[in-house]
Amino acid sequence: MSWNAMRDVLSIATLDTLFMVWWSTVWAVIGGLPIGILLVLTGPGRQLQNSAVNKVLGAIVNIGRSIPFLILIIALIPFTRYLIGTASGPSAAVVPLAIGAIPFFARLVETAVREVDGGLVEAAQSMGGGTWTIIFKVLLPQALPSLIAGLVNTIVTLISYSAMAGAVGAGGLGSVAITYGQQRNDMRFVGVTVVLIVIIVTVIQLIGDLVVRRLSARGSRASAPVRLLKSPKSRTAAPDPEPEARADTAKVRETADEAA
């Protein structure tokens, strides 16, 4: 195959991979973010403490994370065909990719939100903040750097999942590596595919790290006044030495006048 034809195939495959990763990431955030927050809020001593809900959600997340992705794709073929109308192609691959990524991202969200200082939550509650206020004004802003880091890890995982999905006709770079590289014994496709995936992952990781660093620096500056308000230290004004000094000076002058 000529390089021009090869370039066209790889260009389409790259766009298919980005399409699958983008939409599965969107659905992973939509589904995983509320589940992760609920896992925290329904835990012991939290605002929405509910042991039954917490255990059910935890079990669903654990089961979803434990199923190998290739098996998940095969198991979801009837559901994907019912939902999309086909079980092959990039659009169909979004369904198992999103379902596999939701529990993965939900657990990362839970970990990030749990790291928020409990004192900030107590301060918000003492000022009359309700559950929604605590979520949107305290938990999410404070956990934002960790949430972005978890989102980057999810995207990188989805890229590898999309490559595996190519084995069952999902399209994308994984499908090109198998169809043109393995089956046609053209290792150029395998090499270029690996390079393209590495480039995509590297770019996403660099952008994610940059965003996390900036959010962390901004958050540390913004949270300093909050910490001061949270644990104010009683400060007593130092006594003014001037009245005593003036009194001592007056006494010295009186003694000098008497002596004179």
Automatic annotation (TrEMBL):
Keyword match NADP: no
Pfam families: BPD_transp_1
Bias type Basic and acidic residues, positions: 243-260
Subcellular location: Cell membrane
Region (Disordered): 223-260
SUPFAM superfamilies per UniProt: MetI-like (SSF161098)
Domain of life: Bacteria
Transmembrane segments: 20-44, 56-77, 83-106, 147-169, 189-212
Family classification: Belongs to the binding-protein-dependent transport system permease family.
Protein name as catalogued: ABC transporter permease
Species the sequence originates in: Streptomyces olivaceiscleroticus
